[in-house]
Amino acid sequence: MNNPRDFAAFFRLARPVLEHPLFESQRAYIHHDTTSVYDHAIIVAYMSFWLAKKLTIEADTVVKGALLHDFFLYDWHIEGRKSKKRGLKKHGFTHAKVAYANAVTHFEIGPIEKDIIIKHMFPLNLKPPTYVESWLVYMIDNFVTFTDYLDLYTNLKASLLEYIAMHKKLANQPFSK
Ligand SMILES: [Fe+2]
Ligand SMILES: [Fe+2]
User: Fold this and answer.
1) 58 CA from centroid of ligand 1 (Å)
2) For residues 15 and 35, what is the distance between their CA atoms, to the nearest angstrom?
3) Residue 174 within any structural domain of the chain
4) Ligand 2 centroid to 85 CA: how many Å?
5) Average pLDDT of the segment spanning 55-59
6) Percentage of the chain lying above the pLDDT 90 cut
7) Residue 175 forms part of a structural domain
């Protein structure tokens, strides 16, 4: 699974989102345990990419939707404490819509990517995913959340994030003639 060629193919699809400064800003927001939203979104997108390839599903949409599924852009632990939100106003129920509003403001989002983002919290958000791509990201998101808390796949996660950090740096350097 951690074949560097897979990383390269994933990076090619993910790069336009990965290099957006707002995507980068998610490094500051802790998500699960010690994992940032930035790291979580990348791992979800990579594992979704890997599974999409295995199932011969078009990976572009899966990668973009997965990268942006938690694009809510705040620290939900701090927000939760500050605003003391209750019931249906809690982060778990609302963040998919916030992520979609942010995603559509900053990126071109098609109907499948919208479905991936807006339905990823089913059944907290009542409507189930519509497309096979949305079900795929939905399952991987739940799986990755589980691995974040249990410290599983740590080597794979570390090498993927290292690969991306290295290539983003190289991509940002000016070309020499
Ligand atoms: Fe989420
Ligand atoms: Fe997530």
Assistant:
1) 22
2) 21
3) no
4) 20
5) 95
6) 72
7) no
Structure tokens of 166? 């290295």
Q: What is the pLDDT confidence band of residue 30, given thresholds at 50, 70 and 90?
A: confident
> Rounded to the nearest whole angstrom, what is the distance from the C-alpha of residue 173 to the centroid of ligand 1?
33
Residue whose token pair is 């991936």 = 116
Residues of the chain with pLDDT > 70: what percent? 89
Nearest-ligand number for the alpha carbon of 98? 1
Q: Which ligand is nearest to the CA of 37?
A: 2
Range of the domain at 145: 4-169
Kindly state whether residue 104 falls inside one of the protein's structural domains: yes
Contact 96, 117 (CB under 8 A): yes
pLDDT at 1: 52
- CATH code of the domain containing 131: 1.10.3210
Distance 100 CA to ligand 2 centre (A): 13
> Which ligand sits nearest to residue 140's alpha carbon?
2
Contact 74, 29 (CB under 8 A): yes
Largest Cα–Cα separation, the chain: 59
The tally of domains found in the chain comes to 1
Position 121 scores a pLDDT of: 96
Q: Is residue 177 part of a domain?
A: no
Prediction pTM value? 0.91
Q: Residues within 5 Å of ion ligand 2 by Cβ? A: 70, 141
Q: What SS3 state is found at 32?
A: strand
